[in-house]
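Record type: monomer structure entry
Structure origin: computed from sequence
Chain ID: A
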Amino acid sequence: MVCYGWLRNELFHDIFGGELAFEWHYTREKIIVAELYPTDRAALERDCDVEFFIASGPGGQHRNKVETGVRLVHRPSGITVTATERRSQHANREAAFERMEARLLDLQRVVPPRRPTRPTAGSRLRRLETKRRNSLLKQQRSNATSD
């Protein structure tokens, strides 16, 4: 979803839950907003397909014969998460739901637009001094070969 228009900070605050990204004056901004997916456990269980598979690795006969690996596919967004660290399916299922919640929250995080800044006077002087030094070194190399 893309929003255009005149936004006031209070409106942004109300819509996006408290992340303040603009100054207090009116600005014309283009905001790209990802779809907001609910991240509570009931909503995740409703929106995710749960698959169980045989996880490989250490853990002995129990891990190699029983389907302890858990794969979650979030249908609305298409995000896939797997968990195979534990020997029990229940523990892997909990870990997978925690990962899915973290991935969705990261996907929905609104990043404030970067305000470009100018280089400082000191950094400009250092850059010019480095250029002069490199130029002198190159001139000395060319003069040494011409003798």
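Annotation 1: The longest strand covers residues 48-53.
Annotation 2: Residues 1-14, 18-27 have pLDDT under 50 and may be disordered.
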